[in-house]
Amino acid sequence: MPSPLELHAAWVYTGDAHSDLLKDHTLCVDENGKIEALIPSQEAPRDPRAQQVELNNHLLMPGLINCHGHAAMTLLRGFADDLALTPWLQDHIWPTEARWVDADFVTDGVNIAMAEMIKTGTTTFSDQYFFPDSTAQAASDAGMRCQVNFPLINVPTQWASTPNEYLIKGLAVRDKFKSSELISVIFGPHSPYSLEEDDIAKIATLANELEMGIQMHVHETKSEVLHAVEINGERPIATLNRLGMLGPHMQCVHMVWLSKDDIRAVADSGSHVVHCPSSNMKLASGACPVNDLLKAGVNVAIGTDGAASNNGLNLFAEVRLAALLAKLTSENPASLNAKHALHMATLGGAKALGLDNETGSLEQGKWADIIAISFDDASMQPLHNPISQVVYAGHGAHVQHSWVAGRHLLNDGKLQTLDEAQIIRRAQAWRGKIASNANPTKSAKELA
Ligand SMILES: [Zn+2]
Predict the structure, then answer these.
(1) 368 Cα to the center of ligand 1, angstroms
(2) Does domain 5-62+368-415 bear CATH number 2.30.40.10?
(3) Does domain 64-352 have CATH number 2.60.40.10?
């Protein structure tokens, strides 16, 4: 159990959209890892039982929430770059995964992903990958908060062979981590095009009955939408709506090619959107119409996607890119200001994952999921506006401390729950194995 904390910070961003930046405040955390109070530093109790942390030139803020990724794919960082989505998946990623992905691959991949995420300010991440029990265990061991969306796909892998087997194994992961305060488990149907309608309808029914969330790649590419219209006579969003998938429990990832009717359906249903700007740009998929979604009242969160299509897991880089891309696509520099972009990666992210009563902002009673960013570096000076600085200048490089539920995960830039040197050695060993067998055992045709 962590000791109580008193964090004395020069600036505090609470994540609450209605509250301004606070100057010289102290955040008190109780021994259960919950936020107890946020008060002016001159009124701080300075309780001798509490650990005192002086953050004299820092911004204290909620930890970032990376709402979409495939952490284990970090072992494929830089493996197949500069390709379009379909050949990238079918000719490179899927065959390599078929050859190498097992529980050890996932544990080692998730560990190196978490090392990078913690060091760049993420405290909660959402993950969709095979062997989700290994992901959940690794996150729990490292002390990170994680939404595991167990995969459902009409492609046999080492983890499961049929959509029904994916479902049975995924629900077993949910049961295993049911009492965890860090891990939540939801459905992760890969995409509308990789499952039959009957399977999608079944997931929608189960999600309602079990009150579980759903995360799915939706409208990632133009060809996906056009192909669906050709085959089904309707756009994927219309199909998902007809099958009962949309609703406040639904997290639609990417959402690049959207009509006015698509946006209306998402807004009316209360579904959430997870914007992954780097991945969409790198795979030349297009740009999610964030301004139009926000205008329609949709909650938009941010994700990195997997390191194989990004190639990093630094959510601050995505926040900056989301703000810049929104300005570029709207031809309006006032679009998506720094504060709003940061909100999307904190409380907006928590809302998308259904965790906004637990994390995402610095409010009494919530978990102490907190980061402290230093302004000491030359690239962070002079300091006219702390929020602008962390969004447009910082890029996550100056995160000095991180706590999840009051547990110190990063202390003065050093990981406290992960052995970084060992994690790097294991990732290098995987690189050697993958490189030594460039001809995977299963062809792309077998998998498609
Ligand atoms: Zn993805």
Answers:
(1) 28
(2) yes
(3) no
